[in-house]
Amino acid sequence: MKRRPIDRESPDRLYTITGGRTRADETVFDSVSLIVAECEPVPGMQSEHVKILQLARRPIPVVEISAELHLPVSVVKILLRDLLDTGRITVRHPSSGTRAGKPDPDILRQVLVALNNL
Amino acid sequence: MLSTTSELSTTSGLTTTSEPSATDEVSAREPLPASTEDAMKIVIVGGFGVGKTTMVGSVSEIRPLSTEEIMTEASVGIDDASRVRTKSTTTVAFDFGRISVSDSRVLYLFGAPGQERFWFVWDQLFAGSLGAVVLVDTRRLEDSFYSIDRLEHHETPFVVAVNRFTGGPSLEAVRDALELAPGIPIVDCDARERESCKKVLITLVEHLTRLYDRTPA
To answer: Which residue of B44, B53, B73, B200 has the smallest Cβ count within 10 Å?
Structure first.
């Protein structure tokens, strides 16, 4: 792992990007919740929001946005909350939910087929 | 204070679309199909240098990506700038790849370092995982004890894969040393080989299928 952007970061920058928001809203998003843009970026938008809306023209999970923006997953979740609250994105939550539960046997079969076809 | 825009909207000046910035990086990635509805996760856990990244890369359909998460339990509050300034921001890095399952489903594979501090972000990142692979280096078995203990604690089903570097003890000996429960599969693998990694993942999914067959809903 060569890239360690946060280690070089001033915490002030993360504070600025999130507008000083806390982590309270994080649970709205799973790390693999798929984000879909519902609009194009508009002038004057925060640069991170612009980038997210561009990335989310096709469904993209939170972790891929995090990797593309070089920002921690938690920070991305806070940015996403702003976009969700203003109706600029929609979210496709994972069917597996956030607790250890019993996955649908059909889904496991699909995964097995996909792995065999790799 | 660093400017947010200077780092995030650097452009090569070679953009061909009407979007002036960021488009280069956006187009470099392979987007998911528009029909994708559901993303799943499997986590590959192991100590440093055991081959997690190699395994992710061997089966991933995209070049593995890497990112980071902030540790909450380290009392790092990004809402409290005065406190942050006096403490260093503690993050854990991880990488991941993906495998298409169908037009509507995709599977993400995460490589997670098994050391103690990583488990502080487990729920933030890996709650709801289908299962995990504990990747073992027989020369450093002790690295795996903690991971196995934590996976059991989080009730995440797992299989054990021994990444063979040089011979080493038999699978049965490793099973005994790790005190694995009888139902938990243990297999040999070569993290560099796609076929071998495929088999490990198939072993995990078959294990999950058996596990949930026996468990009433």
So the answer is: B73
Which of B68, B122, B109, B144 shows the shortest CA–CA distance to A100? Answer: B122
Domains by residue range for chain B, with CATH:
34-214 (3.40.50.300)
ipTM: 0.83
- Half-sphere exposure in the Cβ direction for B106 (13 Å, CA): 27
Picking from A3, A63, A96, the nearest residue to B40 by CB comes out as A96
Contacts of A74 in chain B (CB under 8 A): 69-70, 72, 78, 124
| Residue in the structure block whose two tokens are 């600025």 | A16
The minimum CA-CA distance between A94 and chain B, rounded to whole Å, is 5
- Note whether A94 contacts B40, CB cutoff 8 Å: yes
Sign of CA dihedral B190, B195, B199, B200: positive
Task: Map out the domains of chain A with their CATH numbers.
Answer: 5-116 (1.10.10.10)
User: Under a CB-based contact definition with an 8 Å cutoff, are residues A52 and A62 in contact?
Assistant: no
Q: Would you call B113 helix, strand, or coil by DSSP?
A: strand
Q: Which residue from A67, A73, A110 is facing B124, i.e. has the nearest CB?
A: A73
Which among B4, B23, B101 has the least Cβ separation from residue A17?
B4
Give the model confidence (pLDDT) of A65-112 as tens digits.
Answer: 999 999 999 999 999 999 999 999 999 999 875 444 678 889 999 999
In A, minimum Cα distance to B207 occurs at A108
